Fold these 2 entries.
Entry 1:
Amino acid sequence: MIVSEWAALGQTTFFINGQPDPDAHGLAQLKSRGMTIEREPVVSVGEDERSIDLYFRDGRTSKRDGLFLLPRARIKGPFAEELGREVETGPLGSYYKTDASKETTVKGVSACGDVATPMPGIAFAVADGVRAGGAAHLSLIFRPGLIGLRRSPKYG
């Protein structure tokens, strides 16, 4: 709701877009910030040089100066099911279940980035990749029973 602070009172609209209404407390907060609530789903979005055009299911249109989206993430393809990975669902969509080292529920298979975090986004994905890469490297050095890998003399 911080977006409502970036515009004059009454200049911000919250598009429910076919989702369930917020609870009574959430609706009261939206109204207290002067936000209009639009329940009709948006079926398409267009734009010109100066505005964004929203086209609603009921045939109405609306011009807007800006639009903030909260997209839902989804894992594409049957990869998780084929490997037997567990998938979790968060507020922004589905993602692979991983432990602190970014290993999935399938031993030796790691995942990172938008497919492995409940908070998709570039900064989170990069940080997640760094953590997964470091953990994968350590698992290759220190995991017992790996064939063909030499142990570091320094670390045994």
Entry 2:
Amino acid sequence: MVEIEKKFRLTQEQERQLLEGATSMGVKKNTDIYFDTEDFVLTRQDHWLRERNGRFEVKKRLHELGWKQGGTSYDEIETEEGVRAFLELPVVGSLGIDLARAGYKPFAHIVTTRRSFERDGFHIDLDEADFGYTLAEIELMIENPSEQQAALDRINAFALRMGIIDSRTRGKVIEYLSRFSPLHYQALQDAGVINDV
């Protein structure tokens, strides 16, 4: 399955309208530690290695860097075997030790309170990060990467019906880097991962 998502900043009225009639899927706290090499070999390609709540996973970019149009498309690799295969990382010790040996180091630590909902076939996450940043993500899961644009069009149409005006919105990690790590942020701009908001 492929995740297509778009991020939005919401007013209180937009949030109220979006959640009207939605089914709550619960509240969760996620502790994410993001990793990369000193020369940002993963994030400059828009791939994201993180340890979420003690388990490593990779968000592997499927979209072209120029495609985004405010949306993203990732394959979520959530098994240790899959992470090792993607990183071409042989088994020597534990995954954490092998990552450190290969030069992967933490660059961001973010704790997020996430409220999740379902409405009209869309998954909605409302996130509040511990550094004072909030955003909404509207997502669809698709079987085939060729359906990316159609899924993004459906998300945009749904958001418009909810009174949400389309605007480019930084994800939590990009916002974190813009505030706390300007060199990393600039490297992602130079690589075409970020088109500044």
